[in-house]
Amino acid sequence: MRLLFSLLLTLLTTSGLAHAADPADWVIQARYVLTMNAQHAVIPDGAVAIQGSRILAVGTQEEISRRFQAKHTLDTSDSLIAPGLIDTHTQAPMACFARSLMTRGWKIG
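The chain above was modelled as a monomer; its predicted structure follows.
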C-alpha cells in the first residue's frame, strides 16, 4: 500500500498535476506573526505573503513557502510582525493643543 501511495504521489508531482505555487511579490518571515483576527492569534515561525499592496495569506513559514513562490523574501526571524494593523493613534496631546488654538481664533487645517 505504501509503495502504491509513493508511486501515485511521484506520478502526480512529476506530471504537473500537482498544484503549482501561487505568485507573490514578497514573503515576509518572522519569529512571530500577530494576526488581526478576532482571537489575535499568534503564529510562531510565521510568514505573510504579499502581492502588491494586498496581503494574500498568513500562516506558518512552512505553509506559506509551500503555497507561494515569492519574487522576494525578507527574513525577520528575530521580529514580531502584525500584518493588517493600522495604527490610528491620534496624538491626543496635539489634538488638545489644536483644539485650544481653535478656541482662540486660529484656523487649523
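The helical segments are 2-14, 61-67, 92-103.
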